[in-house]
Amino acid sequence: MISKWFDASEAKAFGISLAQDLLKQDISTHSKGKKNKNKTHDALIKLLDRIATFKLQNKLNFYKKAKLGNAFKWTLIEGGYTPDDANKLTTSLLIKLQD
User: Fold this and answer.
1) How far is CA 95 from the centre of its chain?
2) 71, 16 in Cβ contact below 8 A?
3) Roughly what angle, to the nearest 10 degrees, separates helices 34-57 and 9-25?
């Protein structure tokens, strides 16, 4: 029972997968144009849907949320995001998991 509480492998894998998808989307806040705004909006909606689905299908305790957030953050940093941007996105992710 206790070992299951500490098994965060699925949450960690989800955090990495989510960050990799975000990196693949190449969402740029500096790009202009309606087409880019639609692309950005659609990508964010898909990410939010994935987060909501994962949250419904998995019981996440604070340890698992921390592992998920840490994996997400460091995957973004390793992918080229600045630490500040990665922190902001990670904070948003963790808030969404609290809803």
Assistant:
1) 11
2) yes
3) 170
Which residue carries 């990410």 as its tokens? 47
Per-position pLDDT tens, the chain of length 99: 678 889 999 999 999 999 999 999 865 554 555 666 677 788 889 999 999 999 999 999 999 999 999 999 999 999 999 999 999 999 999 999 997
Q: Please name the helix (run of DSSP H) or strand (run of DSSP E) that holds residue 1, with its range, or none.
A: none
Q: By the 8 A CB rule, do 76 and 22 touch?
A: yes
- Dist. CA 55–CA 32, nearest whole Å: 33
Strands (E) across the chain are located at none
Structure tokens at 79: 């992918």
Residue 30 sits at φ, ψ, to 5 deg, of -95, -15
